[in-house]
Each structure stands twice: as C-alpha cells, then as structure tokens.
C-alpha cells in the first residue's frame, strides 16, 4: 500500500495574532509553527495502514524552507520519505496549491492520499477535495473511521446530526476529522533519525504543473472589535438578581 499524506506548516493556535503593515497579512515574527493538527491525524492514519498492509508513507508539503520542520515531524513519527515543493515566493491560493500537489502525486503510483480536512490557519477546506478532483479520483471527507479490503476503502464520515458510511475503489483521497485517531508523539530515536533523512526539494517552476493565477486574494485583514466588559448583576437573592437582570435588559440593553 503506497500512501501519500498532504501536510501544512501552520502557526500554533496558541500564537498571538497581529496584523502586519499593509493590512493584508499577519505578523509571523515570534510565532510558533507546527504541523497542522488535522494533518497529524492524516500521518497517524497512514502509519496505521502501513503497519497493517505494508508499503510506504510519503509526506508532501508546498511551502517555504521553514516548512521542512513539519516534514521532519512527520518523518520522526515514522513516515518513510518527504517531499517539499518550494513556491519560490509565489502567492498561491488553495486551488493553485492543489493543482501543483495533484501534478506531483500523479507522477507516483499512490493507492491512497490522506489530508487533513482543513488547515487551522485559513480554514479553506479546499486543498484535499481539489487535489482529488484534479487527479480524477474519488474523495471522502471528514472521515472518523476507515477500513481497507479487496482494493476498496470503506469510511465513516461525519454529517450534520449523525454519520454516513461511504465506500470507494482505490486509489482514492480521504480527509481526516477529529475522532479518527490520536496522533502519536515522536520518540527521541525517531527525532534523531528524522534529522538525518533527506528532504526531496522541488521547485514549483520545474514541476511541470502551472498553478494558474490566484482567483482569491486578500484585500484586507481586521481584528474583531474589542468586546465591552461583562456587567455583574447584584442582589441579595436570586429573585433580586433576576429582577435586576430583567431591568438591565429592558432599560439599558433594550432587548426586551
């Protein structure tokens, strides 16, 4: 079973966010960068499938030099090989990224492609499904359980109010949702080995795939308005507090 995993290097959700000069990007100085959490689940699931069925796991990312850190994390977890596609400073939207990744995946012979269902930085939800479309293979999203047998993959995916079971022939692409697994921590020996493994670096200009002109561009970023502090309701009893609350809603907030 040859498995490809798509990962992204993103700012930690614990990082403070501030808008850079120009108003179209965030300040990245001092930010902590990590592998996208949903992509960690993708790597974990690929490793579990490899253990059960054999084969190899290759991780792909499209990003600048610092995104090597995410690839090293995946290698430390147990991935076999890693590929970084350098955008060479080009600004690519989600569809452009998907075109390039799909072009590279087509050069291999992968039975399964796994990706996080979204990245926590832009929440676009687009790259995984778009890669499947550009590759011309089936796609099942928001997967919380999967099993593979007889050249087919059977997945349970979340839908509003419940779950849905879908089946597809391989090759196929699936995207991960919380509940699929609990990603492992990289061991110290794994981390040391990952530092020595080569990263296959390719330039977007030499991949042979034209990402096209971005159809989405950022025209402005704004921080949410500062919320007013909450107001404490005073009173000697629950009834008195309820009366004060109703009076404040009627006379101050004027919502009742």
Q: Features of this protein?
A:
about 260 residues; alpha/beta; nine-stranded mixed β-sheet; two-stranded antiparallel sheet; 11 strands; about 30% helix; about 25% strand
How do the strands of the widest beta sheet line up side by side?
9-8-7-10-6-1-4-5-11
| Strand content range | 25-35%
Structural class determined from secondary elements: alpha/beta
Radius of gyration: 23 Å
Residues in helix, %: 25-40%
Give the ordered list of helices and strands. EEEHEHEHEHEEEEHEH
| Spans of at least 5 consecutive residues with low confidence | none
* Shape, principal axes of CA atoms: globular
- Give the integer mean of the pLDDT values: 94
Main sheet makeup: 9 strands, mixed
Instruction: State the total count of DSSP E strands.
Output: 11
The end-to-end distance, rounded to whole angstroms, is: 62 Å
Give the number of helices.
6
Task: Give a written overview of the molecule.
With 256 residues, this protein is α/β, with parallel strands linked by helices. Helix content is 29%, strand content 25%. It contains 6 helices and 11 strands. The strands form 2 sheets. A 9-stranded mixed sheet has the order 9-8-7-10-6-1-4-5-11, with helices on both faces. The longest helix is centred in the N-terminal third of the chain and has 17 residues, at 37-53. The model has no long low-confidence stretch (mean pLDDT 94).
How would you concisely characterize the structure shown here?
This protein has 256 residues and is of the alpha/beta class. 29% of the residues lie in helices and 25% in strands.
């Amino acid at each position: 079973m040859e498995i490809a995993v798509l990962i992204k290097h993103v700012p930690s959700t614990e990082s403070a966010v501030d808008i850079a000069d120009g108003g179209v990007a965030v300040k990245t100085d001092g930010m902590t960068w990590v592998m996208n959490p949903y992509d960690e689940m993708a790597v974990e699931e690929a490793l579990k499938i490899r253990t059960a069925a054999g084969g190899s796991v290759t991780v792909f990312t499209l990003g600048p030099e610092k995104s090597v850190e995410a690839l090293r994390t995946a290698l430390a977890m147990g991935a076999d090989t890693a590929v970084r596609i350098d955008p060479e400073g080009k600004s690519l939207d989600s569809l452009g990224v998907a075109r390039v990744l799909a072009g590279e995946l087509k050069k291999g012979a992968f039975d399964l492609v796994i990706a996080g269902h979204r990245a926590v930085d832009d929440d676009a939800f687009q790259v995984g499904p778009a890669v499947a479309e550009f590759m011309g293979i089936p796609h099942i999203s928001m997967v919380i359980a999967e099993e593979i047998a007889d050249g087919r993959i059977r997945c349970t995916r979340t839908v509003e109010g419940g779950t849905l079971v879908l089946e597809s022939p391989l090759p196929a692409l699936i995207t991960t949702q919380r509940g699929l697994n609990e990603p492992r921590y990289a061991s110290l020996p794994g981390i040391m080995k990952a530092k020595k493994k080569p990263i296959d670096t390719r330039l977007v200009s030499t991949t042979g795939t034209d990402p096209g002109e971005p159809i989405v561009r950022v025209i402005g970023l704004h921080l949410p308005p500062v919320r007013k502090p909450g107001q404490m309701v005073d009173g000697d009893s629950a009834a008195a507090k309820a009366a004060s609350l109703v009076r404040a809603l009627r006379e101050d907030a004027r919502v009742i």
